[in-house]
Design goal:
With 303 residues, the chain is mostly helical. It is built from 14 helices and no strands. α4 crosses α5 and α6 packs antiparallel against α13. The radius of gyration is 20 Å and the shape is globular. It starts with a helix and ends with a helix.
Length: 303
């Protein structure tokens, strides 16, 4: 039976993971002089090595190996690996080029995008609260398009690439840790090939710009994997609805880091768009609590 102490422990584990994810922009901004593609290769390679080491220590090899030898699991992992890599690449590029704010907008939109995908691909139905929430999100994006005359492609790309990644894991019930391990293994040959190419043509930053850059690139695996491990450790001790609400910590921290540390400006037009998104998330969050309360009432009435 889960105790309040377990819940508290799960909360702080989750918050630790989300906080680390939330300060990601600082790390990638420090690597802004390195091409986004090269940063991505190091993130893939060092994450793979760390995940492999952890899987052997915790007897997790069997899980990712089972995914690799099963065609039904391997094919989805190939696609999820590509979409995850695309998500990582866009985010790294966005931070390095002064667009961390728009990146945070993408992760605010992501939960609502995931709901829409569940409707189209998993046959779920939207209730009136979810429809209102999605309507606010669409209004926010539309405001940017018509008021500023630009499509927030960074935000939309991040939201949909991560949404598709989550959809694949949900649809095929891929274990998070084993799936990420296999995903990094699958794209590692491409990452190694590209890194070798950079060394051949002399455009590598690793081992060329000094120990500070080398040290940051070597840390890519730990920085990528540690938040995931904390998040996974928190899941058994928290309600899924709580986890869903806590995830807003990440884009909130991204936004604060972008404004107060990276020096980006939140113009009033984009602030209005953010407000539409936040209103949608408030409605969405209320619906989560409402559904949870109804389920608890039904359980209490069941003899």
């Amino acid at each position: 039976m889960q105790t309040s102490q377990d819940t508290a422990r799960g909360f702080w584990l989750a918050m630790s993971g989300y906080t680390l994810w939330g300060i990601f922009p600082v790390y990638f901004y420090m690597l802004r002089d390195v091409s986004a593609a090269e940063v991505l290769t190091h993130r893939i390679i060092w994450s793979m090595l760390l995940l492999l080491a952890l899987s052997f220590f915790h007897k997790g090899r069997t899980k990712w190996h089972q995914l690799a030898v099963s065609r039904e699991s391997l094919v989805p992992c190939v696609f999820s690996a590509l979409f995850l890599s695309l998500n990582w690449l866009i985010f790294i590029w966005a931070v390095a080029n002064g667009n961390a704010l728009e990146g945070s907008l993408g992760y605010f939109i992501n939960p609502l995008v995931s709901v829409v995908m569940a409707v189209f691909f998993l046959g779920e139905r939207l209730n009136k609260y979810q429809l209102v929430a999605i309507g606010f999100a669409i209004a926010g994006v539309a405001f940017i398009v018509f008021r500023l005359g630009e499509i927030p492609w960074i935000a939309l790309s991040l939201a949909f690439s991560f949404g598709i990644y989550g959809l694949i894991h949900k649809r095929f019930a891929v274990d998070a840790f084993a799936g990420l391990t296999l995903e990094t293994i699958l794209v590692a040959p491409l990452a190694l090939g590209y890194l070798a190419y950079l060394f051949i043509i002399g455009e590598n930053s690793f081992l060329a710009f000094g120990w500070q850059i080398d040290g940051l690139l070597l840390l890519a695996g730990v920085i990528t994997t540690m938040p995931l491990l904390l998040f996974l450790a928190s899941l058994p001790q928290l309600r899924l609805s709580t986890v869903g609400l806590l995830q807003y910590t990440v884009p909130t921290l991204h936004m604060l880091v972008a404004i107060y540390i990276l020096g980006e400006t939140l113009h009033h037009e984009k602030l209005i768009a953010f407000c539409f998104i936040w209103l949608g998330l408030l409605v969405f969050s209320y619906d989560i609590f409402r559904q949870r309360r109804l389920k608890n009432q039904i359980r209490s009435r069941t003899p």
